[in-house]
Amino acid sequence: MEKPAPLEHDVLDLIRRRWSPRAFDTKPVEPAKIKTMLEAARWAASSMNEQPWNYLIATKDNATEFAKMISCLVPANQAWAKDAPLLMISVARAYFTKNNEPNRVALHDVGAASAQLTLEALNMGLFVHQMGGIEVEKIRTEYELPPGYEPVAGMAIGYPGDSEKLAEPYKTREKGNRVRKPIKEFAFRGKWGEIFE
């Protein structure tokens, strides 16, 4: 299902078409496409070229790994993400490897890598639904994260599916309009709140 954004200004078609569905087809995501998405993430910009991103990956064809990752999502996300063929959790290394100092922009850089991964996925006919609703401490334990590594977000990835198969309230949300703040509400000039024109 396509839900192109109602634009104020023209942008790349992939950006216009990107959205976060909850309905996924059961078709597996091909390993080559998973590697292509990770290659896109690999080439994201990062502070001091630190590349602080890591991805935990589970495919539905490995029932044990998939169940483990599903259990690391909050129940509201488990309800629909269990039908996606591919799950990922992004993880940020919170310290610079060069000097062990805190990396204040690690989460920003992981987000940039995940955004590139998402657009590359869409370029291959896949959709990504990123989720803040993850069980951070459970991820640390289940995946034995080393000190200094922070779980960031979950991702459900797959080919688009039939939204009619979703339970409520997800079915209604799937069909809802896409809404964004106008630019004047978040872009300022000179001082905070001064609208950029």
Described by the principal axes of the CA atoms, the overall outline is: globular
The Cα radius of gyration reads: 18 Å
Number of strands: 4
The parts where pLDDT drops under 50 for at least 5 residues are none
H/E element string? HHEHHEHEHEH
- Termini separation (Å)? 35 Å
Instruction: Report the major sheet.
Output: 4 strands, antiparallel
The helix tally amounts to 7
Strand content: 15-25%
Structural class: alpha+beta
Keywords:
alpha+beta, 4 strands, 4-stranded antiparallel β-sheet, 197 residues
Question: What report would you give on this structure?
Answer:
- With 197 residues, this protein is of the alpha+beta class.
- The chain has seven helices and four strands.
- The mean pLDDT is 96.
- The protein is globular.
- The protein has a four-stranded antiparallel sheet, sandwiched between helices.
- Helix 2 packs across helix 5.
Can you lay out the helices and strands and say which pair or pack?
Elements: H1 13-17, H2 31-42, E1 53-59, H3 63-70, H4 75-81, E2 86-93, H5 106-123, E3 127-131, H6 136-142, E4 149-158, H7 170-175
Antiparallel strand pairs: 1-2, 2-4, 3-4
Helix pairs in contact: 2-5
Structure described in brief:
With 197 residues, this protein is an alpha+beta fold. It is 32% helix and 15% strand.
